Amino acid sequence: VSQVANLTLVSSACDVVSTAYASTKESHPYIKSVCDAAEKGVKSVTEAAASCVQPVLTTLEPHVAAASEYASKGLDKLGEKLPVLQKPVEQILSDTKELVSSRVAEAKDAVSS
Fold first, then answer.
1. Distance between CA atoms of 47 and 52, rounded to whole angstroms?
2. Vertex 33, ends 27 and 37: CA angle to 5°?
3. Residues near 7 by Cβ (< 8 Å), separated by ≥ 6?
4. Integer Cα distance of 49 and 8 in angstroms
5. How far apart are CA 88 and CA 111, in angstroms?
């Protein structure tokens, strides 16, 4: 999970979502109260689940470690094959916008000629 969270694309996407969430909460008082209540509920459920799951995780620790190592190797290969995962969201959007613009320009040129 930490390796996925450290991917540039994932971390920048989380930053964008977090900023939008915080901005929306601050701009709209009614949404803020709903979000605050939802956050408290999620926190309570998470704490309760964590205390129940901990004994199971302790028992399964060797299997979790093996799965984690396997997943880590898979993520490394995925990162090699998809370099876009190492780019921030803003750059991907900019690159996509440029690509679409150039394709539209090519199409316009083709139609006009």
1. 9
2. 140
3. 75, 79, 85, 86
4. 29
5. 35
B/e letters for 1-37, b = 16+ CB within 10 Å, e = fewer, are eeeeeebbbeebeeeeeeeeeeeebeeeeeeeeeeee
CA-based nearest residue to 12, from 65, 74, 84: 84
pLDDT in tens, 50-105: 888 888 888 899 998 899 999 999 999 998 899 889 899 999 999 999 999 999 99
Cα–Cα distance list, 34 to 24, 28, 31 (Å) = 12, 10, 5
Distance from C-alpha of 4 to C-alpha of 7, rounded to nearest angstrom: 5
**Residue ranges covered by each domain of the chain:** 1-81, 83-112
Tell me the whole-structure pTM to 2 decimals: 0.64
Nearest to residue 60, comparing CAs of 51, 68, 49, 72?
Answer: 68
Angle between helix 29-81 and 8-27 (nearest 10): 170
* Residues listed for the chain: 113
